[in-house]
Design goal:
The complex is a heterodimer of chains A (137) and B (146). With 137 residues, chain A is mostly helical. Helices cover 80% and strands 0% of the residues of chain A. The longest helix of chain A is centred in the middle third of the chain and has 26 residues. Chain B has 146 residues and is mostly helical. In chain B, 75% of the residues lie in helices and 0% in strands. In chain B, helix 1 crosses helix 4, helix 1 runs antiparallel to helix 6 and helix 5 runs antiparallel to helix 6. Classes of the chains: A mainly alpha (137), B mainly alpha (146). At the A-B interface, helix 4 and helix 5 of A face helix 4 and helix 5 of B.
Chain lengths: 137, 146
Amino acid sequence: MKRFILAFVAAYIFIFFWGWLLNGVLLKDIYVQTPNLWRSQSEMMSLFHWIIIGQALIVFAFVMIYASGFAGGGVAAGVRLGVLLEIAAIGMRMGFYAVQPIPGKLIFYGSVSGIIEMIIVGAIVGAIYKPAVARTS
Amino acid sequence: MNWKKFFFAFIAAFGFIFLFGFLWYGKLMHGPHQEVPILWRTETDFGNHFSTLVFGHIVMAFFLTLLCARFVPAGGAGACAVMGILVALVYAGADMITFAVQPLTTKILWGWIVGVLIQFTIGGAIIGALYKAPPSNMTFVKERPR
C-alpha cells in the first residue's frame, strides 16, 4: 500500500508538470489557432480542479492496472503498459478528431507527447511499485 | 495466446463499443451536444471523417482485448469487466480534463463519464466471456511404470 501511494504521487507529479509544459507552453501557439474550441484563460482557471481530479484519476487507474496484472515486471512492464494505454488513448483522440474540428497537428503532437508521457509514467510506476512478497514459513 | 478466440473477442468488443457509442453519444446525447454546436463538425464534414471514427474504435477495442487477454490472469467476464472499468477511468479522467479546457456543459461531462463506464465495463465482460486463454500451468507428463 505504501509503495502504491508512492508510485501514485511520483507519477502524478510528473504528469502534472508534463501537462503544463506541453499544453501550457509548447503547444500554446496551436491552441491559439482555434480559440472557439477552448475556454478563456480565466474560465479555465476556475475549473482547474477538474484538471487535477482528471489527472489523478488517470494515474490512479494506471497504478491499479499495473498492480493487478503487470507488477513484478519492473520498469519494462510499466513501459509496456504505458504504451498499450497510450495507443488506446490515441484511438479515443481519433474519435474526438472525427467529431470536432480540432487541428490535425494538435492530435499528432498530442499523441507523440502522450506516448513519451506514458512511457515515463510506466517507468516511474514500474520502478517504485513492487508487489507484496508472500510470507514463507 | 489463442489468436482465433482473440479475434472473435476483438470483433465482438468492437461491434459492441461502436454500436453503444452510436446509440449513447450519437442518439441519446444528441440534444446536450447541440447546446454547444460550435464544438462539433458539420454533418458533411463529419461524414468525411467517419473512417477516422471507425479506426479509432478499432484501436480502442483491439487494445482492450489485448489487455484482457494478456494481463488478466484470472480471465472470465467478471475479471475482464474490472479491467474494463479501470480503462474507462483513464478515459473518464481525460474527459474531465477536456471539460476544464473546452466549453462543454456539465450534462455532457457526466453523460460521457457514465457512457464510457458502461461501454468499457460491458466491453471487458464480453471479451472475458469469449476469450479464455489456455491454462499456463498445465503440463503433460508421462507416467513412470511402477
